[in-house]
Amino acid sequence: MSRNPKLEEFEIETKPTRSIRRGNVSNFFYDSNTGAFLGRTAESWCKIILFYVIFYAVLGALFMICMVTFKEQFINPRVPRLQQDRGLIGTSPGLGFRPLPPDVRSTLIWYKGTSYESYKYWEDELIKFLKVYKMKGQTAGAGQNIFNCGFRSPPPPGKVCDVDIRAWEPCIEENHFSFHKSSPCIFLKLNRIYGWRPEFYNDTTNLPREMPHELQTHIKNITQYNRDYANMVWVSCEGETPADKENIGVVRYLPYAGFPGYFYPYTNAEGYLSPLVAVHLVRPKTGRVINIECRAWAKNIKYDRREKLGTVHFEVMIE
């Protein structure tokens, strides 16, 4: 059969032989013509290894610099990075009370004065809250730097002021915090703000008009006895309505009607314990809900009842 002269002939590329493929693989590992190993010459390998050594060395150095800077400037466990005006808490400390009701939405302290099972919850809550005050000398790291402070003897650097729990009597655990006598004790504390220093109302001739008359009289009497007591963040607790003021009865403050100034500023020192004021309701009327507002008094403590600044509200009902 004769071929058609118009048809062109093409060569079809055939599958490479096994020996050629073996040669390509062996050349990849080592090419004897160029001296390349794994596709690179010795000079190329030196350059790329040197590049990565320098790259990771610089990267590691930058990482270490960042970690050291971050640790020194931002991760100091005792000094917050954002303080007072720059922080979320601000410059005006809030006021809190203990014991707290089981329902976080409630502020009512209710019990039957003659029933141990009824007031046991409130007593247990105060025992747990005050445990650290009783065991301060037995806690690791605490008790070693406690100093017996006074208005003329503030704590030395690195020391913290002692809180004398015996000064709260009869508001002590051994006396059931006086709950069993239908005259309960409520403890008040200022929230901690790092570096905050109170500005005292230490001029007895220039006390704020809205300050309760009883507290003004107390300040004038105690500062006349000892002028040092003027350096105090004062506290007052009153019934909110005329009926509440009548029902609350006599109120005692232990050990003082305020927080001594030598506890401030707060610097998060090891073993620091916040000062407390035990508010003893000596003989409140029973069978009625008594609305009570307690307020802290210092020139740089803001007061706003709606925003709950510088004040705390709770209710007491004893059956």
Please sum up the structure shown.
With 319 residues, the chain is α+β, with helices and mostly antiparallel strands. 26% of the residues lie in helices and 18% in strands. It has helices at residues 18-29, 42-74, 116-134, 213-225, 242-248, and strands at 30-31, 36-37, 95-98, 108-111, 146-147, 160-161, 185-190, 232-239, 251-254, 258-260, 277-281, 290-297, 311-318.
Q: What sort of overall outline do the alpha carbons produce when their principal axes are compared? A: elongated
With helices defined by DSSP (H or I, 4 residues minimum), what is the helix count? 5
Residue share in β-strands:
15-25%
The main sheet orders its strands as: 4-13-12-8-10
Total beta strands: 13
Query: What's the overall average pLDDT, rounded?
Result: 84
Q: Give the C-alpha Rg.
A: 38 Å
Cα(first) to Cα(last) distance is 126 Å
Q: Give the ordered list of helices and strands.
A: HEEHEEHEEEHEHEEEEE
Main beta sheet strand tally, sense and closure: 5 strands, mixed
Spans of at least 5 consecutive residues whose pLDDT stays below 50 are none
Structural class label: alpha+beta
